[in-house]
Amino acid sequence: MTRACQDWGFFMVINHGVPENLLSSILDGCKGFFDLPEEEKQEFKGNHVLDPIRSGTSCNVSVEKAFYWRDFLKFFVHPVFYSPTKPAGLSEISLEYSQRVREVARGLLKGISESLGLEGSYIDKALNLEQGKQIFVANLYPTCPQPELAMGLPPHSDHGLLTLLIYNGIGGLQIQHEGKWVNVCALPNSFLVNTGDHLEILSNGRYKSVLHRAMVNSKATRISIAMIHGPSLDSVVSPATELLVSSKGNEPAAYVGMKYKDYLELQQSNKLDGKSCLDRVRSSSLATASVCVPNHEGNNDTSMIS
Ligand code: OGA
Ligand code: NI
Predict the structure, then answer these.
(1) β-strands 173-177, 150-151: how paired?
(2) How many angstroms separate the alpha carbon of residue 194 from the centre of ligand 1?
């Protein structure tokens, strides 16, 4: 676990116990949503990052000279469960899927706590995962006539602690490893897991969140479901004090504490730009005094990031 989180920030989980037919039915359910007529999808549009259900498109939207090619549907599934009411059945399947994936994520976070030399329940208790935010993000990447001119999702890291992703067998995810983009493909019925910004903060930078992006192709439509697991919205996330003292002496906290909710607003108020949001909570950036001041004005593109 230490090596997976430290060297890659990314790993695959098999034998996780979530039934195969649940994985295929949730992918089908999301396809059903994306196939709805535009005006029906509009009912679930949402605007603000804290709206519980949001959907939209960035197909054909040109942001800083690149074309993005993706539709999305995001909804909060924990601590309060929300879901679009269409298509029929999506709500029931997504409730079951969310609960099962949450169990897997909590199990992984226990192992991750231990791999940091902390008690297994450390992250669970410190970040109040009983009330933890869990966000369901479905992505649709239609076939793109000129994939070399477009991108599904630009390079970003995920907020939260851990993201568990599945997709419909069509590749497109790339992660950055030692400065190079690496194609990622999963075994059927596995979860692709990546570490998020809040694990980087909690671990005082031992486990860096991984930069990743989604490419598009001209042959087949790709659907992915990323499930983001974060602290409770009102948890203030800062480096675990236990990690700041060791036999070698004291280690300075590399990040300042910030409420998860404030971080979400801050991230969405910035243009999506790699891991720039994390820079805002780095201790060294305190002098610029930009911490904790989400900008609610301006030209916010809240559609891009989860
Ligand atoms: C995301 C994400 C990658 C993919 O939704 O945050 O990184 O493969 N998705 O769709
Ligand atoms: Ni992501």
Answers:
(1) unpaired
(2) 10
Distance 56 CA to ligand 2 centre (A): 16
67 lies in some domain: yes
Atom of ligand 1 lying closest to residue 167 CA: 8
Tell me if 173 CB under 6 Å of ligand 1: yes
**Protein residue with least CA distance to atom 10, ligand 1:** 224
- 165 in a domain, yes or no? yes
Ligand 1 touching residue 71 (CB < 6 A):
no
Using alpha carbons, select from 271, 216, 240, 215 the residue that is nearest to residue 125: 240
Indicate whether 298 belongs to any domain.
Answer: no
Q: Tokens representing 136? A: 């369901």
With the most atoms of ligand 1 within 8 angstroms of its CB, the residue from 71, 72, 163, 221 to mutate is 163
Side by side, the strands of the sheet bearing 10-13 are 10-13, 191-195, 162-167, 222-229, 134-141, 71-78, 53-57
Total domains, the chain: 1
- Whether 145 is covered by a domain: the verdict is yes
pTM above 0.70, yes or no: yes
Q: By C-alpha distance, which of 148, 182, 152 is closest to 167?
A: 152
Determine the structural domain holding residue 68 and report its residue range: 2-289
Kindly give the number of the ligand 1 atom that is closest to the alpha carbon of 137. 5
Ligand 1 binding pocket includes 70 (Cβ within 6 Å): no
CATH code: domain of residue 252: 2.60.120.330
pLDDT tens across the length of the chain (306 residues)? 888 999 999 999 999 999 999 999 999 999 999 999 999 999 999 888 889 999 988 765 555 556 788 999 999 999 999 999 999 999 999 999 999 999 999 999 999 999 999 999 999 999 999 999 999 999 999 998 888 888 899 899 999 999 999 999 999 999 999 999 999 989 999 999 999 999 999 999 999 999 999 999 999 999 999 999 999 999 999 999 999 987 677 889 999 999 999 999 888 776 556 777 888 898 865 444 333 333 333 333 444 556
